[in-house]
Each structure stands twice: as structure tokens, then as C-alpha cells.
Amino acid sequence: MQDLKEASKRRMSFGATVKAVLWSFFGVRKNSAYEEDTAQLNPVHVIIAGVIAAVIFVLVLLTIVKMVVTA
């Protein structure tokens, strides 16, 4: 529990967190960059950015499917 409290106090910007989450969606990341991010990322920001990115991804897929089906 103490580790989670300490991790949530990390001060990486939300923009940098979004960038790290998008790289993880793509699946390509240097090991050194991954280790740097895991040491600095705020887990709460990662969860929020991941949920937002997943929702946007699903909406884009639904839009593409609707466009293809109606054409």
C-alpha cells in the first residue's frame, strides 16, 4: 500500500504519460525508455490515459465499420 502512495506522487506530466501509453498501444518501445518511464510515471495517470485511449480506439473502429458498411 505504501508503494502505491509513493508511486502516485511521481511527477511526470500527463502529456508524457499519454505518449508512453500510445507507444504501448503500438507495441514498440526501447527497453531503456521503458525503464525510464516506469520509474517516473504516475500509475493513476497511466490508468486514465489508457482508458481514454481505449475508448477513442473503439470509437474510431466503430466509425470505420459504419463507413464501410454504409458504402
Comma- or semicolon-separated keywords:
single chain, 71 residues, mainly alpha, 4 helices
Strand content: under 5%
Total DSSP helices: 4
Helix content: over 70%
What ranges have pLDDT less than 50 throughout 5 or more consecutive residues? none
Q: Cα distance, first to last residue? A: 53 Å
Radius of gyration: 16 Å
Estimated structural class: mainly alpha
Counted beta strands: 0
Shape: elongated
Q: Can you tell me about this structure?
A:
- There is one protein chain.
- With 71 residues, this protein is an all-alpha fold.
- The protein has four helices and no strands.
- It has one domain (2-70).
- Helices cover 80% and strands 0% of the residues.
- The radius of gyration is 16 Å and the shape is elongated.
- The termini are far apart.
Task: Describe the structure concisely.
The protein is 80% helix and 0% strand.
Write the layout of secondary structure elements.
Elements (H helix, E strand, L loop, with lengths): L1 H6 L6 H13 L4 H10 L2 H28 L1
Helix pairs in contact: 2-4
